[in-house]
Every structure is written in C-alpha cells, then in structure tokens.
Amino acid sequence: MTADEPLVLGIETSCDETGVGIVRGHTLLADAVASSVEEHARFGGVVPEVASRAHLEAMVPTIQRACDTAGIQLRDVDAIAVTHGPGLAGALLVGVASAKALALGLGKPIYGVNHLAAHVAVDQLEHGPLPEPCLALLVSGGHSSLLRVTDITGHEGGIDPLGATIDDAAGEAFDKVARLLGLPFPGGPHIDRVAREGDQVAIDFPRGLTGRRDLERHRFDFSFSGLKTAVARWVEARERSGEPVPVADVAASFQEAVCDVLVRKALDAASAEGIEDLMIGGGVAANSRLRAMAEERAGKLGIRVRVPRPGLCTDNGAMVAALGATMVARGRQPSSLDLPADSSLPVTDVLAG
Amino acid sequence: MLLAFDTASPTVTVAVHDGTDVVAAATAAIGMRHGEQLAPLIEQVLTEAGITPAGVTAIAVGVGPGPFTGLRVGLVTARTLAHVLEVPVHGVCSLDALAVGAVASGVVDGDFLVATDARRKEVYLASYDAQGRRRSEPVVERPAVVASTLPVIGEGAALYPDSFPDGRAPLRPDAAWLARAVIGERVEILAPEPLYLRRPDAEIPRAAKAVLPDAAPTP
Ligand SMILES: [Zn+2]
C-alpha cells in the first residue's frame, strides 16, 4: 500500500445490506455492513420498504464504523463511490443521497457505479489487479450473468454481456428450494450446509438450457425456473406417497444441478472467447460446491479461477469502493451531483455521467 | 448559518438563514426526483448565500409526515451532512413549518388545520391554534373522516374540497419558513427521525406456497 493510491469510501444500499467500505487502491481498509436480513426473514423475502427504513437508520453509524475501522478521518477521503443501480429503487436512493451529502460536505468527487461491475471489481482487493480480459460469472439473488470484461470501468464497451438468466436468478432458486424444504431465508447458506450430508447424484434434476436446440439460441444463458419446478414436483410426489423427504439428498442434487450448469456455461464461454481467467462473484459465489467444481473443471482446461472470499461475495461497500478506486486510478470523469438512482441500470453502464 | 430543507412533499425546497433573515432560497422547478435534485439545489443555495459547506453551522430538516421515499432523501442528507460538518441537525414536523408560514404571513388568524397529500386517498393532518402551535400529533386519515370547515393550509384542501371547503395557501412546505421557524424558536425541535405514520406494506406469507396447481394444501 502506498499513500499516493486513492483513498475511496464506497456505499452500497441496493438491497438489504447497508455497506460502507474504505479502500486505498487495491487494499481493503474497512468493510462495515449492517444487514436488515433478520427483519425480512419472516416475510420469506426482502420487503423493499423495510429495507429502505433500515438503510436510513444504519447509514451514518455504518459510515462512522468504517472510518473507525480504517483509522481514517472522513476528510482524508479522496473520492466517494456509490451503487446507483441496479437494485431496489427506494433502497438505492438512501445510499445515493448519503453519498452526495458526503461528496458535497467534503468537496470531493462522486462516482455513481454499477452494482454488478462492483461485484467483479471486489476481487482486486483479494487477488490484486483484475486480468483484462477476463470472464466474469455473476451469480446472486438478483442476477445471473456471464460477462466478458476488457475494462472493469466500462470504458469503450469494457463490459460485454454474453448471457444472462431468462427467468429466475440462481440465488432466487436457492431461496425458493430452501423454502420448499423448510429451510430458513436466505436459502443459499442453508442448502450449502445441508447438502454436505447428502448425495449429489441421488436425484437427476434437469439442467436448464443445456439441450442441443437450447444451446443454439441460449448457449450462454441460464434458466432455473424449470429446475425449481422439478424439485417441487419431486418433493410433493414424495409427500403424497407418504414417504419422508430426504432433505439432504434433494438439497445436494439441486445444488449440483445449479453448479453444473453455471460452471459448464462459464467454461464454455471462456473457451469460446479464448479467455484464460474466470472470475466468479455475487452472493452465490460463496457456495462451497460452486467454488470446488469451478476450480476442478477449470484446472483441466488450463483456466485460472478467481473467487473472492465469501464475505466479499455478498453485497458490501468494499466492492463499490474497489470499483471507485479503479475509476480514480484510470482517470475516469466523476459523476455529476444530480446522478439518479436507476433500479434497472444495464450492466454495460458502469459509471454514471 | 442555518441550512434548511424539506422533501416531505413533491417539492424540493432549500434555504440558508444567517440568523437575521433568509439570505438565499430555491425551490426545484419540477416536482419529485428528490434524490436527483436535493444535493445540487443545496450546492446552488450555498453558493448564492456566499458560503461553502464548511460555513454551515446548523441544519434544519423537515421530518414529514410525507411520502417515504422523498422524505428519506431529505433525512439521510441532513444526517450525513451534519455528521461530515460536525454540526447539529434539527428536525421539524413539515406540517409545523407550513403552519408557521401561514400564521406569519397573515393567512389565518384563528384555529386552523394543516393537511397535505398522503396519497392513497388520505391526508396527513394536524390542528393548530392562532399562534401556529400544534394541538395534537399529526395523523394520516381519509379526508371524509377528518372533514372540517376550519381554514385548511396545504395541498389536502385543494385535493379534497368537499371535506375541506376553506382551503388556503401555502400548499407545500417552504424551506424559508422552515428556517425562520427554527431561528425564531416558533416550532418544537424533534430528532431527525422520519414521521412515517404508516407501517411498511408487507405480508407474512402463509405456509410455503404449492408450486403445482393440483397439490395438496400444505399444513
Ligand atoms: Zn449483489
């Protein structure tokens, strides 16, 4: 770490985590997160208004906690970065407004950045500068995409989406199947845990969009809706016949089906594009089976895999700060103070004007 | 130098008060878009007042009641700015600021109400005495339930004239009056907490929903 690298504070409020991260260049100094997940658990999903209210209450304390952890004063910060989309509109607005107040009060530039690109940029905090080009597999409760990244700041078409889910996001499928199996929300970590006791080849669940005809039109796209229905049918058939549901086997077989499709398509895309580095990010990247399978299969193809540690895969402010620091380092133009929150921001729009 | 703003109505309004009077004020030309408009408007008003953010010694913010999304933009801006600048932040019920403005400008001379648009065919409402002191906690209610022949300040009367026949201006909060109300100690100072008055819309799901149409009901 050198003092001439930019000190950037990043704010993330696109869903239910109030995240404030502080980085200097590629060095993580603080990653403060306040989560309202427990307030949503009884609703079985994130309630936007509940999340927005929690963001307002958590915002300033989380900024303070990040500064204390990093051992810096706010006035030391060189730039502010904030997720301005995509995400829940009302939730995004709390973070965007707070970031503007910081920028205004400190007289420092603000960078409104794309949440998805930030999920990729965060890996720099763990593994150093991102190889460009690299192939990014982004999987979370809100998104499942394959991206060809030639410039993480999005400069001159630096992020090119090769494929995305055509129905449910991967993380959504985890949540729904968890609920079906009577496991708590959010489903990902619970399925991962329960699956360790199960047999991943016990049930042959379908792999969406992997048939020959689907591959012609949707080679790099995903579909998890059919898988979710298949799991539901299987479980209900069991229940109706009065037999116990082997929760661990169902969880393991479902998880295997999701990971198989994700890894298969990501490696196919990397090979097709001649890219030797695969980056996996987003909340589902915390899944232990996905990591293990990706490393095992990529190794055989000579493709290197980079996955940030689980704490950096879920939504946080450090990922936003990491992308902001890259913006500063590459001399990108800061955003204007009237930058909006954009709930449906396309992945190709990395930096707000 | 008091920086005052309110985002509890569709209008974003900002003012700076130097202790003697309002020295700069501005209201967004178009309604809504609080998140986009507030920060640039604050920057503009501070420049007009001839000060930098560091020159601000206190902040006043309307805490509603008002539509939640816009309201939160004002509150998180006030809290964050106050934190950065290390100055106090004074919360003021947005209806009170309207009441002070109405009394001071002679629009009312006896008991009156303030009613603003709460959407969903409801109003935010509070009652005031001739001096503009609030008599009760603000409520959110259907106009017919709180119908009155008293003078009514705020957009509520313009929207529901059948329930509030004596509607009068001003219709929306104005940061200039918010600033004067705080400096003149004519309003109760509150914590910068939003007056939501409504719970979040959220339903607790019943048991896991069956995916198949012919599925047996789950217990
Ligand atoms: Zn995310």
Structure description:
The complex is a heterodimer of chains A (353) and B (219). Chain A is an alpha/beta fold and 353 residues long. Chain A folds into two domains: 130 residues, 2-Layer Sandwich (Nucleotidyltransferase, domain 5), CATH 3.30.420; 177 residues, Nucleotidyltransferase, domain 5 (2-Layer Sandwich). Chain A is built from 13 helices and ten strands. In chain A, a hairpin with a 2-residue loop joins strand 2 and strand 3. In chain A, helix 6 crosses helix 7, helix 6 packs parallel to helix 9 and helix 9 runs antiparallel to helix 10. Chain A starts with 6 loop residues before the first strand and ends in a 24-residue tail after the last helix. The mean pLDDT of chain A is 95. With 219 residues, chain B is of the alpha/beta class. Chain B has two domains: 105 residues, Nucleotidyltransferase, domain 5; 61 residues, ATPase, nucleotide binding domain (Nucleotidyltransferase, domain 5, 2-Layer Sandwich), CATH 3.30.420.40. Chain B is built from five helices and ten strands; from the N terminus they run E-E-E-H-E-H-E-H-E-E-E-E-H-E-H. In chain B, strands 3-2-1-4-5 form a five-stranded mixed beta sheet, sandwiched between helices. Chain B has a five-stranded mixed beta sheet with strand order 8-7-6-9-10. In chain B, a hairpin with a 4-residue loop joins strand 2 and strand 3. The longest helix of chain B has 18 residues. The C terminus of chain B is likely disordered. Chains A and B meet through helix 2, helix 3 and helix 9 of A and helix 1 and helix 2 of B. The site of zinc ion has 6 residues of chain A, from helix 4.
